[in-house]
Design brief:
The protein is an alpha+beta fold and 675 residues long. It has six domains: 53 residues, Helix Hairpins (Orthogonal Bundle), CATH 1.10.287; 231 residues, DNA ligase/mRNA capping enzyme (D-amino Acid Aminotransferase, Chain A, domain 1, 2-Layer Sandwich), CATH 3.30.470.30; 76 residues, Nucleic acid-binding proteins (OB fold (Dihydrolipoamide Acetyltransferase, E2P)), CATH 2.40.50.140; 71 residues, 5' to 3' exonuclease, C-terminal subdomain (DNA polymerase, domain 1); 78 residues, 5' to 3' exonuclease, C-terminal subdomain (DNA polymerase, domain 1); 79 residues, Rossmann fold (3-Layer(aba) Sandwich), CATH 3.40.50.10190. Helix content is 39%, strand content 20%. The chain has 25 helices and 25 strands. Strands 12, 13, 14, 16, 17 and 19 form a six-stranded antiparallel sheet that branches. Helix 1 runs antiparallel to helix 2 and helix 3 packs antiparallel against helix 9. The chain binds 2-(butylsulfanyl)adenosine (IVH). The site of 2-(butylsulfanyl)adenosine has 15 residues, from strand 3, strand 8 and strand 11.
Length: 675
């Protein structure tokens, strides 16, 4: 009995999956809805009778699941990168030139041009052909486990089609809400007295962020895949080949992806997509251009957060006109005072804009903006809205000039404009506005990302005198918090626990959270890789910082100045007393760890950039000047003074062929380690 149920279930699953693929992916159903429904009903009945026969890839598992308490974090095995933008054909030409220089090749190159879908990037992990985990991009390194929500999307296969799936396949693509679904959803929400979503992207994001998968199941989310994390997992040599292969596995691939030879063909396809944009049933915000050859992609590699082998070519910004009704001045955490336009609220590209940056005084003068002007406002993608220009023809004569403040709007100290700077600054380190912004930064996304402490909460805590400096966060009690407006016991308890937990933090994160001028996430990570502890960084000199590849002069100076400040020293000591405990990242041992390279002369087989990036990818360091720490002096053709100096210092010289062999051996070694 049970055996025949098992067989019947296998058959039902196969047939349901087949018809679902025809319907949702190919948009070409073979059977009427009633027939499909009958198969599904039979499956549900049988599974109900034999619950132990329910498999994770059963079509019944799409809409199942109980609400989660919270999302789990999932590290991506390989980082999910972002893309550099270009805005016109010339910038694309520059991109190609960079590629050709890097590869030491002659053009034109072969590309794949794909619509840039305006949804949310996700990763789907298939083990032996079965979907096991689906996650958001998160910060690119770690995302959130939204498997239950993703399983509700019919265009996402729970099991790969075909008889020979790869052992492991990490598929990447975009979840989106078609425009029609978005409109229906908003109509329903209006009818229910709920707030409406500003655009399909927000609606899709809101749906995936629900802990209850029933909500995602009720929304007509859709999915296009556009690549894999690791080309070694697929039997393909090109990006277009990957797309076709993914299609055979049952994924939806955007039909407007196409190969183009050379920049002009790419530009022609851009024009086609821009025309097509309005007619598409989903939002796109540009085009992604990728080098087609996977081998070349591999050679090009990636920079900090973006691949060298792809760019996004964005459509022009969306614009609208409105009235400039006022100007406010915002003080940032480094004291920079920026003018902000207060606008008559206006819809721009589907979002209501009330404020827009005016950048600085020079920009206001250059654009000749006046209070009361009708102004052109633009929003480009996720970028902060900005005022493009006044519409001078619409002036009535009553418009007023905009006066810049001479004193800090927060602490009233006199503002300074340093030489060569276009921004006025408040130099008072005790300025409340700066303090608050710095505290907000510390707990915010770019800092320690302490959940529960938003801007408003930090502002309140500051106003009440409960938090004036970073260590004060750690002295907060549940009673302190529940005294504030809108704080319940439970959320206060949570916040206190999360704050306490944030004392255990990776060094890089902590450094970024301090909000030191010119030290963002990337520099912080670079520093954490070179120094072993906060103590070492506190003790470092200007030269020590300058020695670190990737740390520029501005950052180095700013670091020294910051750590020399006695207030900072007291603050850091207080944190250490409170139990601040930084774990240093596992630096891993790569084949070239500890090796320091210097290049001189011209190499025949690589460009200088590619040679450097190869060394770095294998854990080595590249410096520009010959010094005692250098372990390899790579001499190409025509190497001159550096080679002499290296000889004088008795440093080991390496010929180009030795270097090529060394890189090859190191790469083989590191691949063996990975497998
Ligand atoms: S490729 C390393 N292809 O754009 C390559 N991305 O700014 C990275 N996106 O987070 C992604 N359509 O969400 C790629 N056809 C496409 C895309 C696409 C949309 C999004 C994706 C990513 C962002 C990059």
């Amino acid at each position: 009995m049970k055996e025949s149920a098992r067989q019947r279930l296998a058959l039902l699953r196969e047939r349901i999956n087949y018809h679902a693929h025809r319907y949702y992916v190919l948009d070409d159903p073979e059977v009427a809805d009633v027939e499909y429904d009958a198969l599904f009903r039979e499956l549900l009945e049988l599974e109900e009778r034999y619950p132990d026969l329910v498999s994770p890839d059963s079509p019944s598992q799409r809409v199942g699941g109980v609400p989660l308490a919270q999302f789990q974090q999932v590290p991506h095995r390989l980082p999910m990168l972002s893309l550099e933008n270009v805005f016109n054909q010339q910038e694309l030409v520059d991109f190609e030139e960079r590629l050709l220089r890097f590869l030491k090749a002659c053009g034109p190159l072969e590309y794949v041009a794909e619509p840039k879908l305006d949804g949310l990037a996700v990763e789907l992990v298939y083990v032996k052909g079965v979907l096991t985990v689906g996650s958001t991009r998160g910060d690119g390194l770690v995302g959130e486990d939204i498997t239950a929500n993703l399983k509700t999307i019919a265009a996402i296969p729970l099991r790969l089609r075909g008889s020979d799936p790869p052992e492991l396949l990490e598929v990447r693509g975009e979840v989106f809400l078609p425009i029609a679904g978005f409109q229906t959803l908003n109509e329903q929400r209006l009818a229910n007295g709920e707030t409406v979503f500003a655009n399909p992207r927000n609606a899709a994001a809101g749906s995936l962020r629900q802990l209850d998968p029933q909500i995602a199941a009720a929304r007509p989310l859709d999915f296009f895949c556009y690549g894999v994390a690791d080309p070694n997992q697929v039997p393909c040599r090109t990006q277009i080949g990957v797309l076709r292969y993914l299609q055979t596995l049952g994924f939806k691939v955007n039909a407007k992806a196409t190969t183009c030879r050379g920049v002009e063909a790419v530009a022609a396809h851009f024009a086609v997509l821009r025309e097509l944009r309005q007619a598409l049933p989903y939002d796109i915000d540009g085009m992604v251009v990728k080098v087609d050859s996977l081998a070349l992609q591999g050679r090009l590699g990636s920079k900090a957060r973006v691949p060298r082998w792809a760019v996004a070519w964005k459509f022009e910004a969306t614009q609208a006109t409105t009235t400039l009704i006022g100007v406010e001045y915002a003080v940032g955490r480094t004291g920079a005072v920026t003018p902000v336009a207060i606008l008559e609220p206006i819809q721009v590209g589907g979002v209501v804009v009330r404020r827009a940056t005016l950048h600085n005084e020079d920009e206001i003068r250059r654009k000749d903006l006046r209070l009361g002007d009708t102004v052109l406002v633009q929003r480009a993608g996720d970028v902060i809205p900005e005022v493009v220009k006044p519409i001078a023809e619409r002036r009535s004569g009553g418009e007023q000039l905009i006066a810049m403040p001479t004193h800090c709007p927060s602490c009233k100290s006199v503002l300074q404009r340093e030489e060569g700077e276009i921004i006025c600054r408040c130099l008072n380190p005790a300025c409340p506005a700066q303090r608050v912004r710095a505290l907000i930064h510390y707990v915010g996304k770019a800092g320690l990302d302490i959940d529960g402490l938003g801007e408003k909460a930090v502002e309140l805590l500051y106003e009440q005198g409960l938090v004036r400096d970073i260590p004060d966060f750690y002295a907060l009690t549940v009673t302190d918090l529940t005294k504030l407006d809108g704080w319940a016991e439970k959320s206060a308890e949570n916040a206190v626990a999360v704050i306490a937990a944030s004392l255990q933090v990776p060094l890089a994160r902590f450094l970024a959270a301090l909000g030191i001028r010119f030290v963002g996430e990337v520099t912080a990570q670079t520093l954490a890789r070179r120094f072993d502890s906060l103590e070492q960084i506190r003790a470092a000199t200007l030269e020590d910082f300058l020695d670190v590849e990737g740390v520029g002069e501005q950052s180095a100076k700013s670091l020294v100045e910051y750590f020399r400040n006695p207030h900072v020293a007291i603050m850091l000591d207080a944190l250490v007393t409170r139990g601040l405990n930084m774990h240093v990242q596992d630096k891993g041992v790569s084949p070239l760890t500890g090796k320091v390279f210097v290049f001189t002369g011209t190499l025949k087989s690589f460009s200088r950039d590619e040679a450097k990036s190869r060394v770095k990818a294998l854990g080595g360091q590249v410096v520009s000047a010959v010094g005692k720490k250098v372990t390899h002096v790579v001499c190409g053709e025509g190497s001159g003074s550096k080679q002499k100096k290296a000889l004088a210092l008795g440093l080991p010289l390496v010929s180009e062929s030795d270097f090529v062999r060394l890189i090859h051996d190191a790469a083989t070694l590191s691949q063996r380690d990975e497998s």
